Amino acid sequence: MIDLSRARERMIASHLSRRGIRNDHVVKAMRVVPREAFVEPGFEEFAYEDSALSIGHGQTISQPYIVALMIERAEVQPGDTVLEIGTGSGYAAAVLSRIAAHVYTIERHAGLAKIAGQRFADLRYKNIDVRVGDGTTGWPEAGPFDAILVAAGSPEIPYALKQQLDLGGHLVIPVGPPDEQRLLKVTRVSATTFKEQDLGGVRFVPLIGEYGWHDERAEPRAKQSLRPAPTLSEMVTSAAEPLPAFDDPAFGRLFDRFAGRRVVLLGEASHGTSEFYRARAAITRRLIEEHGFTIVAVEADWPDAAAIDRYVRHRASGMLQDATFQRFPVWMWRNREVMEFVEWMRELNGSREASDRAGFHGLDIYNMRGSIAAVLRYLDQTDPQAAAVARERYGCLTPWQNEPSTYGRAAMTAGFRKCEKAVVEQCRELLEKQLEAGRGSGDELLDAVQNARLVASAERYYRIMYYAGPDSWNMRDSHMFETLEHLLNARGDQSKAVVWAHNSHIGDARHTEMGTAREELNIGQLCRERYGDQAVLIGFGTHSGRVAAASDWDGDMEVKTIRASLEGSYERVLHDSGVARFLIDFARHAPLRECLLKPMLERFIGVIYRPETERLSHYAHASLPRQFDAFVWFDETNPVEPLGPEHTRAGVPDTFPFGL
Ligand code: SAM
To answer: Which CATH number is associated with domain 4-221?
Structure first.
């Protein structure tokens, strides 16, 4: 055989070392295994290119870089017992055998297994056992394993493989739809707990077997099975990852799989549900503490959020005229759940250098709610009829509001149009006052450029916002996206952000009636378009319970009973799973994702909830798994706990954002 040792050295330098493979064991092993012995005769000269080569039966020998990456990430050590699924040519098993004490490898094609076995014998690699069969069920008699490597893409993580991992052992497996998977590393932390890490996007041939795909066309097993197909809810039950208590560190850990992304967007199905806030706080705490996220960007007015930002980052108090979050809907931010999170941020930041402190920022059009309050105040005094119209229109600042009677009530009056000039003028004045007040607060994020941008577009913003039509939605979400980009840029190339906003802002609008029927876009869609899979969109939902909401814009907060979700809605399917609180990661459950793609009803509750007209006022059609990458479910939910005067704390410095 020709001597390809120089080509092998080149492969190590350019495909491995330069791409970050540092593990000595891996590099040494790949230096001694002749890859040319594992390709089809006649293809030897291509053996050291960094590509997957055909080995017959429609299968491939994996790219050298991927082989090295998987072994490195599985942390294979001398003395280990390792299981490999998908022997193929036998190359990866051969490399593994040069590190570990013993390698067990399973291949479903008898022809491939036979040739691989012959190659091991020729090379005198005696510590490898090859078996023909379905690797998705593992090799229980030979386990437990220190490492398991799966060389084919699976619709989900086969349960049997997790069970055959030793304590502290690692499973590396590509999971996801046939065209692209995520390479996952699963570590067994205890008998029942596993930690997961996302190593990035990859593309493998399908894993075919009892706990994999049904056949080469990668059909989900459920569709082909002789057993009666499971119902959607049964599929949800098996895909659901139950959520621990909010203060259990395991809660945040479940979301580690998203920690490598640049932007993590967390939704909510109402603006007044305690569980949504607490879950978002638990996830965000973990991302800030362990994974380098330093921006929390929320669906709130910039000036109010800026007061909180000064508090959590221990900055000078820039005196605002009004106390924070004092306008409708007050409970959306002035609640116990947010206060506890804010206190946590302040405490954590106290132990960090100023430049590493995590900030809290508002994404909405500058002072949107403050401006709406000013509009209403003005109209109440000058034209009460126009004020009533404005209230109704602001109540419809939600894209799902379908109620025909609302349109009637919100019809334009002559007075409404006449007031436009004066109202816009008022808003401009308010903006100037607030910018003036914010000056000198040391807030370099709201820098001169951003200020100038705000002032220049204020007139247009306030005019569009005054009418509160469909244009105001797109303007608002584009603005939110631009502000997010501004924040990310201000904190540098490596900055990472968590966004908290309603599902209607976060779930990709192209897969809802907003996008398909009304050409409305949102921040989730814009993030996907800009950041691709560096953005992850996570929706939240509930079946029933109680929620803090008003009946009309500017109305008092009430605790309202949420009606049980409608038959034919996504919420009903999730409820029927019988699991009380869970995460579904659609990338890991391709068959379920597929079955949920066809649009169904989805419920949206904002600051206003009208149970009496619920179907028309709060449900719209959407494709949930296209809107979101993952979904968090709480079957029964409770209202947020609003802060009242009893939360004023004597002796607390005036920097405290919630001080009255
Ligand atoms: N590790 C191999 C190498 O170094 O050449 C490459 C493996 S190839 C990308 C994937 C292999 O997985 C194919 O040979 C395929 O037949 C096999 N495979 C797919 N599903 C399997 C299953 N359930 N059990 C065992 N092998 C399977």
So the answer is: 3.40.50.150
